Amino acid sequence: MSAPEVTVIEDIRPLIALVAPLIGLIGIVWAGEKRRNLRETFTFLAAIVQASAVLSMVPLLLGGGIIEFHIWQIFTNVPLLLRVDGFGLLFACVASLLWIATTVYAIGYMRGLHEHAQTRFYSFFAISLSATMGVAFSANLLTIYFFYEMLSVSTFPLVTHMQDKEARTGGRTYLGYLLFTSLCLLLPALSWCYVWLDGGTVTMDFLADTGKVGEFSQTTQIILLALFTFGFAKAGLMPLHSWLPGAMVAPTPVSALLHAVAVVKVGVFCVIRVYSDIFGTEVLRELDGEDWLIGIACATILISSLIALSQDNLKRRLAFSTIGQLGYVVLGATLATDMGIGGSVLHIAMHACGKITLFFCAGAIFVASGKKYVSQLRGLGRRMPITMGAFMIGSLSVIGLPPLGGFVSKWYIALGALDRDAIWVVGVLLVSSLLNVFYLLPVAVTAFFRTDETEENPGIQEAPMACVVPLALTALGCFVLFFLSDPLLRLVKIIE
Amino acid sequence: MMENAIAWILIFPLFGSVACAILGMGNKKICYPIAVLSMAGSLWAGIEALRQVIASEEHTISYIFGGWTLDQYPRGVGIEFYADILGILITLVVLGVGLIVAIYSKLPVQEETPGKEPLFYTLFLLQITGLAGICLTGDAFNLYVLIEVAALTGYGLIAMGSNRAAAATFNYVMLGTIGASLYLLGVGYIYIKTGTLNMIGIQQAIEANGLADSATMQVAFVLVGIGILIKMAFFPFHAWLPNAYCNAPTTTSCLLAPLVTKVMIYVMIRMVLSVFGVEFSFESTMWVDVMPWLVVVAILCAAVMALAQREIKRMLAYLIVAEVGYMVGGIWIYNYYGFIGSIFHIISDACMTLCLFLGAGLILRKAKTTKFDGLRGLFGKMPLTMTGFFIGGFSIIGLPPTCGFFSKWYLITGGMVSQRWEYMVVLMFSTMVMVVLFFRLIERIHLAVTESGENLGHGHGDLGLNAEQTRFDEGPLSMLIPLLVSATIVIVVGIYNQDVVSLIEIFLSDYNLPRGTGH
Predict the structure, then answer these.
(1) ipTM
(2) A378 CA to chain B: closest CA distance, Å?
(3) Is A2 inside a domain boundary?
């Protein structure tokens, strides 16, 4: 994705984006439960500093440069290096901007439900966002691995926030899957590259070492590819997806930002990095056994959509929908064409905006009415018109209808499939979109067009403003992203 | 004084122990400052010695006690202290751990063994003398003497513990003595064959006289090897360790757990590389074929046994047995990275075990129990202690950027280069066991759920405890600060691992070890 002849600028801004939440963390802990307004101010400040550091790098990137920051020489020839390229920056923008929205939302949600241990909640949230930035800006495989592990561990207290039996089950599944894959699949793969790649002098750099895996035998390459693909289990590829529905026991802001945007997108981000910058599209296309990965991605898309159809719990339905949408991103990467990978990258942003809206809505419904199940939503459209309207927009974007963001990325993934002469993949995309319609639209339709006879109409009862404003904004974002798709594509160098 | 830094390393604790014994008769309170000061002095001498070793041309310095000459061939019988980079690194670990534990010991020693302070600190400092001496001596028989110094003082230190400590000590005495005797027997065979006890002398004699195929030397190797394996609690010779460490006083387990087994790993590396030589150890014996498999069994069993424990200290004791397996494996997979991993793991395992045992001591003091069931809500009560403790735990699991990640990385890389897949798989397995062990602890502290899944609280973070049980109540600073320092060291050693590894690489460059295709 990144052309080799770019100018490299040494700049501290990636580090600022990384460290801002950690400094904010000190303020959050210092302010504590008793001064909660001050505490939330620190979260805000951290989020705003992070977002402005990230956004200020956009012009440089559009001007054709990349930014590097060398933190520490961690191994003899592998440094802990931050590098900002278009792909990483796009992801960082999405995560940091949505963090601001989520912070507002979390204030409404957590206070509305009188949740306990909010200081712990905001603290670990900040650490997770720092780790997310680290992944987005990593320049080599070891750096990415460091932040990847940091993210797994720092989200555990968020997943088990409720501290009850359900939380224990969810937390165990969560860590079990994530740490098993990263320690037992990823680490050997990294070690393999470190020892054998290029006579052992390799830095596993995303820019300098693209395609060097090609010197291995075909079998080795396939094994490595599988270890990487499944090792990054945050990508939620089947059969290693069960942690995501399990993690839905977390409070909704966590499900919204972490389990629809940050954590899962880190997974697919890493997969795309490995595919496009460690293997490289040419090596991948020549790899014989790579087709079955396309198959697994397609199977994930279809199976998870079918499971989503059967879920009555709204958050679980959204979780399975997320697994399917992550399948799209992996699919685009496995196609190993520029268009496909470009579509994947875009889908990270598009799906993030759509899915976070849906989760915000699910949380707002829970705060306002205590309802968790799709079957309970009858007549809710009249009580919560803004929320359900936003839900509708989010659904349409995830389904992929113009003029909403989700359309653009699906379009490019389809183009990538055509480049690869894989017509059947386009068929899968169509079927899956249809399934998306089946499991998402009924939610909004039930809420708007079916009335609940047992309850009288109590008038409008929206969730607190702090919940409604962010979800309205992200719903608006789905429109904006559609019209912004051109500069976004330029950012990731798909079009010049 | 500067040029005798190696001698000063030992003189400080040795004379400190004498001072404790004599002055302690008059005033018991003077023992603690003496212990801390002699450890600080010794550490200072150790750092000075490291600087000298790095500055010297051959990266070694030698000090001959009593002026016995070593000129004649073979290098003669005498007390030579010989510090190369490996020796001095491990010595520094011993001294650093010793200093931290000495500072930590103030309250536990007063409370757990009242009235016995002079005795305790005398043995404490002698223990350090023995352990540091093991790392520095250049003489195989002298090594035996120092092993016994460390062991005998260790028996004394452990026996001061709870009622069951006496039985545990007796068990330890029996196995420890068998191990030391086997080692001594082996040294006897070596002396018969080579006519010298000096380590360099032995190595020269083996090369000069072509003793690689000598049956006597083979027997000597096996005797020395098994003796060391018993001493380091390598499975199945581990039976003495869990009871000894769990029933010992807090300070004793904090001192012995990080050091004793690790120093014996050092002895194994020293024997394999410097005394018998790479060629003899890896080409002429069967060990290189057998040991990796024994290691696999050892790690597997130790990890499973750790999983079965319901008490923090016992769990940690079995973890040590598993970690011993890691390091022995690193040696016998026989390549450059394995050795880096093993040596680096000696250092990092000492740091993280120290951190965990210091934490366990604090937990025991405040919660009055180290059983898993009594830990609920401890994070709210003592957040700093638990943070320190879990940094140690994360390091044992091997999460970056703690030092445990880097040693594990080199060990895995070593397994990769030698293509010992069984070793790699068992490393992965035990890593997962450690994940279960520590996150089970975190769960137990963090959640309001019993083992059987019964909810104790009423939702919304209610842990089912009263206000008194969750009130912020950290341990005393004299114990808390050493814990936090050791937790910081765990991270700093991880971040600065390059500096340590480059020293280890200088040491290993003298030996001809296979490196795989890379580098």
Answers:
(1) 0.86
(2) 29
(3) no
Contact criterion met (CB < 8 Å) for A164 and B424: no
Structure pTM? 0.90
Angstroms from A77 CA to nearest CA on chain B: 10
Q: pLDDT, tens digit, for every residue of B86-134?
A: 999 999 999 999 999 999 998 888 888 888 888 999 999 999 999 999 9
The structural domain count of chain A equals 1
**Which residue among A116, A146, A200 places its CB closest to the CB of B461?**
A116
CB contact under 8 A, A165 and B459: no
In a domain, A207, yes or no: no
Range of the domain at A318: 289-496
pLDDT digits (tens, 9 = 90+) for A164-208: 878 888 888 998 899 899 988 898 888 888 877 665 566 777 777
Measure in Å the smallest separation between the Cα of B362 and chain A Cα atoms.
23
| Residues of chain A positioned with their CB less than 8 A from the CB of B410 | none
pLDDT tens-digit readout, B367-424: 887 788 778 878 888 888 989 999 999 999 988 888 999 999 889 988 888 888 899 9
Contact B455 A164 (CB under 8 A): yes
The answer to whether the beta carbons of residues A441 and A400 sit under 8 Å apart is no
Q: Nearest-CA distance from A211 to chain B in Å?
A: 18
Let me know if residue A410 belongs to a domain.
yes
Would the CB atoms of A195 and B455 count as touching at under 8 Å? no
Chain A contact for B518, CB < 8 A? yes
**Chain B CB within 8 Å of residue A32 CB:** no
Number of inter-chain CB pairs under 8 A, A vs B: 109
Residues contacting residue A491 through CB under 8 Å, at least 6 positions apart: A58, A61, A62, A86, A89, A90
- Confirm whether A27 is domain-assigned: no
Query: Mutate which of A73, A166, A191 to test chain B, going by most B C-beta atoms within 10 A?
Result: A191
Chain A contact set for B399 (CB, 8 A): 149, 153
Q: Do B439 and A156 touch (CB under 8 A)?
A: yes
Residue A133, min C-alpha distance to chain B (Å): 17
